[in-house]
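TEACHING EXERCISE
Course module: macromolecular assemblies
Task: Read the component lines below, then compare them to the predicted structure of the full complex.
Student: A.B.
Group: 4
Components provided:
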Amino acid sequence: MQTMESRQQANAGSKRRRNSLRGWRENVAGYLFVAPMFIGTSVLVLFPILASVVLSFTNWNIVSGFKKASFVGFANYQDILSDAIFLKSLGNNLLILLAIPVTLAIALTLAVLINRYIYLKDLFKVIYFMPFISSAVAVAIVFRVLFHPTRGPINQILMSLGVENPPGWIADPKFALVSVMLIMIWTGIGFNMIIYLAGLQNIPKELYESAQIDGASSWTQFTRITVPLVSPTTFLLLVAGIISSFKIFDLILVLTNGGPGNATITPVVYLYQKAFLELKTGYASAVSMIIFVIILLITLLQFYGQKKWVNY
Amino acid sequence: MAEQLGRIDLRKLILTLLMAVVGILFLMPFAWMISASLKFEDDVLSFPIQWIPDRFNVIENYKEVWTGALPFSLLYWNSIKVTILTTFTSATVSALAAYAFAKIEFKGRNVLFMIVLATYMVPPQTLLVTQFLLYRWVGLYDTHLGLILLNSFSVFGTFMLRQFFMGVNNEIIEAARIDGAGHVRTFANIAFPLIRPALATYAILRFIWTWNDFQSPFIFLNSDKLFTIQIGIKSFADDHGNIYSLMMAASVSAIVPLLIVFIIGQKQVIEGMQLGGVKG
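Instructor-supplied answer key:
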């Protein structure tokens, strides 16, 4: 690819020398084609993020208006980092991360089974993918009823199986976050599975064939060949999972609205409450910046970690 | 190996059956949702679960959802409008930019591409506050146009389509240019048709994401009459929070049509997701 590109550039370079008019026209064409995208991202992403940086140092409040706003330095950041609810939301987000390895393990198992050991592959892909494609709002509404502490089907089934005191799920501060994680696992399996399926196609078939000849069991093949060779995919999915965990909004907002007693609040839900319920614009901008920095750090970690941790 | 050909592998068959059982358990929440949406309210939480109800209240439930105070017919129309226009705009904007980044040699191309790519790292939620202020200021708040614009500039789409345009042979482009075709004609008549399958894949993904998008309409719309399905169903659930049969009928109405679209276009959806790797 690199050689092709440099050849392209060399070609273009010589042409430009021959015909500067053509070069000028190329420039105009290029800018016109890129203009909608570039203007759109500038107005909707670049400008807002820069404005957020500035706003995060003010105490602006939408209601009181511009005039009463003033610069407060790092006060917002200090307040946020010492706010017990924000720290709780960060802690919750860290706990939510535990759902990712579980999702990955189930997804990889299913992917391997679908890839080699069963019939009707396409049907099963579709089945496991369905929750992922479904509206998170509707899913949250369904689970609100399924998780009903006394009369919900899940607890009715548990009680009929002999569980005397089933958990109160989303009504119980101790189990609310677990409930959110269970739904995340349920919806996330399909996506992770199909990415794993793509990853599995890159493992040479000969490896399995020679392992079979050597008499390796399916389990040995799984742990010695599949798991290590699919590690680039695992790493990708792990990072993607961490980043998307910081973006969950619809599921929590509709399922628990961050409750009960902030048991399921996450930084994004906290941001929403500060910005759109309490209308603390400056403060919420600072929360945005903190979330932004966290995700940026994870992304950088991905860039540098890839070489170090991925097997081959 | 040879003796396995032509006859059914027993181990494979057993594993398939086991997988089918797991699959059925996996889809149980959907089955429960559909079943509850058919019932009288009194029967919804009865136990043991009646998967196929004794008595049906389908017509009444769905009639309330589709023609009630916040009718789903309106929500559907709004969602269809917003989703189709967003998909169309986003695909066009991304295809144009992708073509330029892949096939036009212009000054500053790499810098512009890096800038666009860098914005991909910004999580959408961190932009909500200032986008909201901006929208209020320019009058795009509480409009469908604002909502459409919000999701029309996709870095993911641009990046993905650029990969495909890079795969288009340069000689084909050059030949067209030597014949006197400008970039607009080269793009429209030559490059664009070649990447049509990739564009279709991107369009399907954008359609699903926009259809399921809750956050943007939730923050940027205020009037009931502009609501899309995702916020409509939340507001319906807030109003009918204790009437589970109606909530399930609303959920079915929100989920099932898209599931049908997915089942029809499953190959493209799944391949598109595999291609994209990450949701964007």
